[in-house]
Structure formats: structure tokens, C-alpha cells
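Give me the 3D structure for PEP-CTERM sorting domain-containing protein.
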Amino acid sequence: MKHHLLAAALVAAFAAAPAQAVTLTSSSGAAVTSYSSGSLLAYDLDFTTLGTASLTFTLDAADIGSTLSFNALVRNLSGLGIDGVTMTLTGASFGEPGSIATDGFQAITASGSSAQQAWARFSPGLTTDLYLGAPLGEGTNWTINLAGAQAGGSFTIAVAVPEPETYALMLAGMALVGVAARRAHRVKG
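Predicted structure for PEP-CTERM sorting domain-containing protein (189 residues):
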């Protein structure tokens, strides 16, 4: 009889436990600590070198058709200032936009979002922390819409923090294209 009660208690405990929001199945480009539970997708992302971090999450049956609350703490541990950050979703979309904030040492000069991306620009370059949503309890969490997803399917969040040299190279390349176009126009004219 005691075995039946023990088994019933275990079944009840697992049934009452909150479902895992999604499972982080792979990551690259930065150190990740996940704090996800229930209907909350939350993580800390620590960049020691600048570039792109990619996080892939797998869905279970409880996630299908739901909306997840989302927040993240992004730390720049590289010692370099970053001019901007872009977060891109693949396999899911943003529902309601949330807040984007810094720890107050750098200002956000511009920010925006679409169904697939959220971005922010900083001045001076961000050298400390970025808060997407309310990872520390202040602000508004983002939502991620999982409508149309399948159990066992996945979605990816890519967080890009390009090095300042990337912008310089891009601008130099655009300038060279402009000079070449101007010369070509002069030759034709």
C-alpha cells in the first residue's frame, strides 16, 4: 500500500511541476547561463570576444501554440565598446516588444524591432551590460510567439555584437564602391 501512495505522490509532483519553457540544446559564440522555466525564456549571455552568439532551443508539446515571456542580460566582457547589438529570431517571431536598457553608463541612441529582429545602438560604445526585457525585475519582458511550431521543432536566437572595426571596414567598402561608381559615370559622360 505504501508503494502505491509513494507512486501516486511522485506522479502528482511531476504533474504539478511547471513545464520547462523550452530547452537550450546548443549555443556558440558566448557563455550562456539559462534561467528558463515555465513560460519564461531567460538567459545571461557573456561575450568575452565580440561577434555573434547563436542559441538554439527545442520545443516540447506543452510549448506549441503558446507565447513565451523573454528576457536576457547581455554582458560585454571584451573590454571593447560596441556600437550596437542586433538580435534575430529564426523559427519563431516576436509578439509584443519589450524594453531595451543599459546599466546607465552608456545611452541608447536608437532602437527598434520587427517580428524577426530587435536592435539597439549606443553612444558611447557599450562596455558593460545590456538588458533585453526585465532580467533584473525592471522594464517589460518581450514575448516570443510559437504559433505554428511543431513539438520537437526548434528556433534560434542570434545575438550579434559586431566589433567597431566591422563598421569601419563596411564604411570603407561602401566608399570604394561610391568612388568606382563615380569614375564609371565620368567615363560614360
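The mean pLDDT is 81. Let me know if you want a second pass.
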